[in-house]
Amino acid sequence: MEKLAIVPLRKKSFRELSGGQQQRVLLARALCATEKLLLLDEPVSGLDPIVTAELYQTIDALRRETGVAIIMISHDIRSGVEYASHILHLQNRQIFFGTSDEYKNSDAGRYFLQKGDFR
Fold first, then answer.
1. Average pLDDT of span 38-58
2. Is 27 left (phi over 0), alpha (psi -120 to 50) or beta?
3. Are 86 and 71 in contact (CB under 8 A)?
4. Which listed site, 11, 25, 27, 72, has its alpha carbon 20 to 30 Å from 45?
């Protein structure tokens, strides 16, 4: 709870929390259940841009501080490239797999990051 700055929420009902607070609580619960790997499916879905950025930063800090490997599914390519060490880009097939830097310099990365068409 301390790592996710949610100690003040410990006595609140989950239903009373904002979307960002709920995501942090769910992330804390997941961390209690694992030591090696977290699988996150669209963890920022439905959050406003400020809370989204904060949650991405929190996930990145957890990865660095705990050493837990994180596999995250996201349609947010720009944030994925910013925060992920590796990118697996799928679109009915594997389009790319490699480091974020390699993705930025790949044909797929240049196309999707420049165009902004992520579907």
1. 89
2. alpha
3. no
4. 11
Say if residue 65 is exposed, middle or buried (CB neighbours under 10 Å; 0-12, 13-18, 19+).
Answer: exposed
* Spatial CB neighbours of 37, under 8 Å, sequence gap ≥ 6: 68, 69, 70, 71
Residue 110 DSSP class: H
pLDDT digits (tens, 9 = 90+) for 19-33: 888 988 988 888 888
CA distance 72 to 40: 5
| Prediction pTM value | 0.75
Q: How many whole angstroms separate alpha carbon 92 and alpha carbon 47? A: 27
Residues 3 and 63: their CA atoms lie apart, in Å, by 11
> Per DSSP, what are the bridge partners of residue 88?
97
CB neighbour burial string for 17-47, b if at least 16 within 10 angstroms, e if fewer: eeebbbbbbebbebbeeeeeebebeebbeeb
* Mean pLDDT value of segment 87-98: 96
Q: What is the phi/psi pair of residue 91, to 5°? A: -155, 80
Residue found under tokens 């594997």: 94
Question: Is residue 100's pLDDT more than 70?
Answer: yes
